[in-house]
Protein 1
Amino acid sequence: MTCTETQEKLTRGEALDDGERDHALSCAECGAFAAACATLDVALTELEPCVPEGFADRVMARIEREVDGPRGRERATPTLWYEQRWAGMLLASAAALVAILNFARFVAGVLMPVGSVGGAP
Ligand SMILES: [Zn+2]
């Protein structure tokens, strides 16, 4: 057996066989590890899970408040004209129309010979 195996067994809380116990008693590293495990076990059993009174209710109330918060803000109607939904749609449509007209002008300028539109060749 190795130090690692012995310490893994101690960590899992498994009982050591005679050889491992002898090793833990003679090996300084494993002895210290076993002592630390024993101390930790005692500390953990002394710790009682204590939840403050009304903790769950406070958590649930807080969650409800946070869930309601953003929805409440979303329900409020925007006051400025450019925050309205129709204004955004109108501006986006106007921008798309300008872009299409610009593209059509560019394509027409490339495809049509300059002379046919009346410009100087
Ligand atoms: Zn050891």
Protein 2
Amino acid sequence: MHRRPLPQTIVLFADLRSYGLALYLVFGVAAVIVAALVYAPIRRRRQRRALAERPFPRQWRRLLRDRWVLYRYLPSNVRFALQRQLQVMMSATDFYGCNGLQVTEEMKLLTLAQAALLYQNASQDQLADFPHVLLYPNAFVREGDTTDELGLVSRQRHVLLGESWQQGRVILSWSDIVQDLRRLDGHSLVIHEYAHQIDGYDGAMNGSPLLPNETVYRRWTKIMQAAYEDLCREAEWGQPDIDPYATSNPAEFFAVISE
Ligand SMILES: [Zn+2]
């Protein structure tokens, strides 16, 4: 069947109308995406504030008092801030049991309570995400290739108690966390690995966490560098008060002194 072609002006009008509709559609979808992106952090902040405001469960408080020696010595204002942050972290942290470990609420609470010490003064506006936690029953083995000065590559096995990854992941051994809960000597695997996470929020695990401005960065670097060099000198001459592992590099220095 032969159709008579439409006059040119009508074709042009129809084209413009369909372009207009397409444009409306594109702008509409873009507006919805932008609104969702803007609203998501506001919603998260509101949810976190509501979580922090909730009364702290009595059985959690009892568990902390019974199982974590340091908790008994914390001043009441620190306990209060820690408990607020802990409620948020309990709901915002994903745990994964490894090597068959079944992660219980008790394990989550006793792990995150130590981490919450580091986050107690951080506002919910500053924190985007908390790291995921991979929990092993005991020390775990990590295999990796290392290259020496001659370019020789060898496969090595390391037994680790904990590990912190830049991509927001912390790996911990539960049996070592249990030991730390009973001690008051400045050793905490959880605090160590979470300190690496806080150090990495600015994009690099190098011993300086996210700080408000350039002046504070300069001051931080000056003080930390001097303290690091002092400790390295002390470690050369004898046994320093701080774990000599802190002399490995500025990132380990930050993590160890956080403990
Ligand atoms: Zn470390």
